[in-house]
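Much of the work behind modern protein science is quiet bookkeeping, done one molecule at a time. The protein below has been through that process, and both of its lines are reproduced in full.


***
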Amino acid sequence: MFTRRTALVACLFPAYLIAAVSTAGGQGVVLPGVGPINRSMAGATVGAPLDAAGAMHWNPAAIAGLCESEIMFGAEFLYPRTEVTSTFPALGSGSDDSNSGVAVLPLSAIVYHPDDSAWSWGLGIYGIGGFGVNYPANPGNPVLSPPPPAGVGAGAVFSRLALIQIAPTAAVWITDHVAIGLAPTFTMADLGLDPGFFASPDDADGDGFPSYPSATHARLHWGIGFQIGLYYQSDGPWSFGASFKSPQWFEKFRFNATNEQGNPRDLELKLDYPMIVSVGAGYRPCDWITWATDVRYTNYNDTDGFGDPAAFDATGAITGLGWRSVVSAATGVHYQLSAATSVRLGYLFTENPVPSDVTSFNVASSPIFQHAVFLGASQRLCGSIMVSLSYVHLFENSIRGPLETPLGPVPGASVQIDQVSDALAAGIHVFF
């Protein structure tokens, strides 16, 4: 017999997936949805909760609007394809694909409605974003050619940022129609960069050609923040919501590096996750149709690391990525084909946070998509168990800009980044 105690124990089981998370692409570093149901609605859930993970992530108050207590767990498999092309006078041009592989994003969430209580409680553990590339060194592609004096580039370029969030959540109905919610958020980050362009290059071997250190030897780092939300359910078909997600304020990232002679060198980097404000509406004209639309503002401009100006300081270190804040809009339709089967369709548009003139600063950090479509379906296997699947296609997008160096842009040289991605997500839901 499936009991509430069994559900709580089962919720902890997929936590092992934290160790398997890789990288993700989203609205910049932000993943636009969590879990197969929320993903297939393009992330739209602030005013129309459909599942535990999506409601908890985008609007903590919306968990009060779920019809049943629910536990869910699963994973998403993201396959990004990124290409960098560069041109340099007298050297020609070349292109290389990033061998990024398939990223795995974990998912575990539970929402519990106690009997005869206005309160709802939740706990979510899931991937919320990241980025990553793995470019080979290539003498025929100027930006990936060997560093001076053998070439004009950086050689092989690698990056990995993976973000896992833990969100204990509470929501309460304060009137018959209005619920409020609150969640402290704890985010774990796995960051590696090679070369570490944020650090000053050194010339410890005295050959007159400084080089950037590798920034890959680091522990996991932690950030903290909070989210608050408001959910309104009318007596009619409409519902509305709003939420505020604070920045995730991370401790300084620290790396054990070496200089050109192999002697120890300590590196530090300040990097946070952006503030996000969301509003959304839901419309249920009948029992088998739910339409949802969300609009979000992601504040990269004031986020340490991402929003800092993209430039070289006097030592040759990069001062920031130069990202701009973006607005995105998501809409999705849920159709209940029968008591056991449902399907969903969603569409997302987001502004690109990476301006074209800072392309060369973002060769290692280039989640640049703008349009995406989402498909999904769910099937009840019995009264309390359901499985869900979703598919995501992020349409190809490109940016192109000048090739920047510590001495300024190189006349006639350019860098272009092209990216397209697909993803599959699967999950199991148990209602109790």
In short: The CA atoms of residues 172 and 379 lie 30 Å apart. Helices lie at 4-12, 35-40, 52-58. The chain has three helices and 18 strands.
